[in-house]
Amino acid sequence: MTVLILTSEEDVTADMVVAKLHKTGVPVMRLDPADLPGKAVLSAGYSHGDFKGHLSVNGHVLSIGGLRSVWVRRPGEPAAHAPHPSPWLTAETRQALFGLLYSGSPRWMNHPRNADQARLKPWQLRVAHLSGFAVPPTLITTSPRLARQFAAEHENVVVKSASGPPPGDPALALPTTLIGPDTDFSGVAAGPALLQRYVPKHADIRLTCVGTRLFAARKVAEPGQVDGRYGDTGHAWEAVPVPERVGKSVYEYVALAGLAYAAFDFAEEDGIWWFLECNQSGQFGFVELETGQPISEAVALWLSQREADHRVPQFR
Amino acid sequence: MTVLILTSEEDVTADMVVAKLHKTGVPVMRLDPADLPGKAVLSAGYSHGDFKGHLSVNGHVLSIGGLRSVWVRRPGEPAAHAPHPSPWLTAETRQALFGLLYSGSPRWMNHPRNADQARLKPWQLRVAHLSGFAVPPTLITTSPRLARQFAAEHENVVVKSASGPPPGDPALALPTTLIGPDTDFSGVAAGPALLQRYVPKHADIRLTCVGTRLFAARKVAEPGQVDGRYGDTGHAWEAVPVPERVGKSVYEYVALAGLAYAAFDFAEEDGIWWFLECNQSGQFGFVELETGQPISEAVALWLSQREADHRVPQFR
């Protein structure tokens, strides 16, 4: 029973997990969808009510019946490395590869269908509500009037992007930014803005959920600090216990969202962990490095388990 | 309680359904996501464990709490009509619009997450197996050797695209094509091929499923005809009853796939309905026109019902 890792070639975090999997003796296949067709060959046959499929990479053959789990970790675009790439070849290759994998019954970390849904930030806030997390008041709008009203009501407000920074090379940094009530909000009409009440936090919290295992880490924030991802404050991540109530909410959230892996970001203020976001493919290498928490080992163990994960149903 | 239709402006089929909805007196809002931001304004507020949202189009305001159902019918790309469109503006607007709609609890025809999954043709074949349909032996492969072997075994084989014809303007027709065992299969290595045993059909069957209502139509095929979508044989679509066994499989399929609407294509041979594909957004206007089956009315009724559809869960 093999673990399939869909990843691009240069991926240090995947290397960490692969090393752990090798230790457990579980066979591993690594595939960059960009290498299909080419280095990789696939076949899926549907006959007489049955299904048989296989995938081979560099001559190593994997039968889909022998597929234990799939880790979707930074896969390339299907057929991107083809001699004559095209949107149509990508579409056809995506159909073949994911059609094959969806036809089997591996455990997914995470199922692409649930991952897509989990990327919607406003939906995250709603699921966070339903899971019992504390969520800072938030508004997403294209109405300058409502944006102005929200900023006036909450005084200290941050603005951030819902989908992430604009694509481009070089990548543009777009830190979460504190704005005042006197800001000119007229531009909101041209593109939706996400406004959130500023949390005067004492620390950033990163909580990584791997199946049922939780790893929380805390990094002290400088007074008035807004976006912990930018700038070095000299503080390091330190492992902290997970409050029971937060743990309960995390399990509720990943069950509602159908996720086997999730990285939660919180802002800690007077002991309250304010939910900021949940990244279904959030990095964990930096946390493991600073705290020594065995996250890559937990990922490897989850992937190597045999039993089906009933939280991630196969067909719906 | 309003019905929201996500559609581009020129859409005759949507017009048919809107006319039926007007008759029932149910309020309807029509939105092309391409018109957001611009003609449309949205706002989603997450505060104190609660969620409030609204959407307004041309001054008509819809509260998300008053949203009954959403019909995803040919929506344009979010922000496509903006004065300065960009991939980032589209990504941000998609987050805002679908984040808002996912945060409510409307009934979906169909939920975009399930729709995306349902487009995978190889997965359709697997779900068809599991639902008890007869499925012609099919192979999807990038291996010329296996393609050759499949063609030799089944003698009469058709080749078709999994994702549809290549995008482009003018659109390229790509009919399902009969090929012989002497075909040169070497090109299969450059892009996956979908091969299927040819069914010497007596008729094409289109079965439209709207909630729990089924509408089957049959069109006589000329001997040796391969792809019923191209060329006029002079035969028309005629309403036919749904065999009990097929109906059972249809209900099983839409339950597994989480679909409220689905258009099934079958090839009829000696009374057997061979499953070819299930299009979750398949057209129904042409069938209604020729058979008089009240499909647009059924869609309007489904959209105007109040009760939640437990087959399409909100969060997973």
From TrEMBL, chains A, B:
Coiled coil: none
GO biological process terms held by the UniProt record: SOS response
Residues of the MvdD-like pre-ATP grasp domain: 2-103
An MF annotation (GO) of this entry: ribosomal S6-glutamic acid ligase activity
Gene3D superfamilies referenced in this protein's UniProt entry, alphabetically: ATP-grasp fold, B domain (3.30.470.20)
GO cellular component: cytoplasm
InterPro entries per UniProt: MvdD-like_ATPgrasp
Protein name: ATP-grasp ribosomal peptide maturase
Species name: Streptomyces capitiformicae
